[in-house]
Amino acid sequence: MGVNPAPSHDGSRAAAEAACEVIELLEVLWERGRDAVSSSPVSASQLRVLYSLDREEGINLRTLGELLGSAPSSVSRLCDRLEALGFVERGPSPVSRRELELRLTGHGKAYLRELRARREEVLLSSIAGMTPTAREALSKGLRGFRDAIGTKLPARRADGSDDEARSA
């Protein structure tokens, strides 16, 4: 009566293997896109910081460290480098005089917009080669994966709008 059967371990393993292959392919595509445009000024760890600050504007170092699963000293060094690049700024917290808030600068937001646009362009050209049925299955599968992870964050588009706005 509408009860979903327990997922097959073999089916889960095959899906996980396919996801790993896709992640590796995406990494190759991102590198190709980066080489075609220019070298990225940020490392993968710094990019995680930018994504986190984009979603959690105005958090402090401790909270950012918890989000990233990193020690405060490591996070502080990452933010120092991003601040030197002009992507992140620290400012006083309105809640506590002892805390500093971390925010993306306009330059940092523009960098993420451009990065997302380049990545979306690469994905669009790759997905265009798929059949309509395969594209729909991919879209449905990715939404299911996002839902299974339990994230409440909307998918971000290259233009900064979220998936919820598109589906409304």
Pick out its properties.
single chain; 168 residues; mainly alpha; Arc Repressor Mutant, subunit A; two-stranded antiparallel sheet; 64% helix; elongated
Task: Write the topology of this structure.
Blueprint: H1 9-37, H2 44-55, H3 61-68, H4 72-85, E1 88-92, E2 100-104, H5 106-127, H6 132-149, H7 163-167
Antiparallel strand pairs: 1-2
GO molecular function, one term: DNA-binding transcription factor activity
GO biological process, one term: response to stress
InterPro entries: HTH_MarR-typ, MarR/SlyA-like, Tscrpt_reg_MarR-type_CS, WH-like_DNA-bd_sf, WH_DNA-bd_sf
Provide an overview of this structure:
Keywords: DNA-binding, Transcription, Transcription regulation. One of its GO terms (molecular function) is DNA-binding transcription factor activity. Pfam families: MarR_2. Residues 15-147 form the HTH marR-type domain. By secondary structure, the protein is mainly α. The protein has a single domain (22-155), classed as Arc Repressor Mutant, subunit A (Orthogonal Bundle), CATH 1.10.10. The protein contains seven helices and two strands. A two-stranded antiparallel ribbon has the order 1-2. Strand 1 and strand 2 (100-104) form a beta hairpin. Helix 3 packs across helix 4. The longest helix has 29 residues, at 9-37. The radius of gyration is 19 Å and the shape is elongated. The two termini are 30 Å apart. 9% of the residues are buried. Residues 152-168 have low confidence and may be disordered.
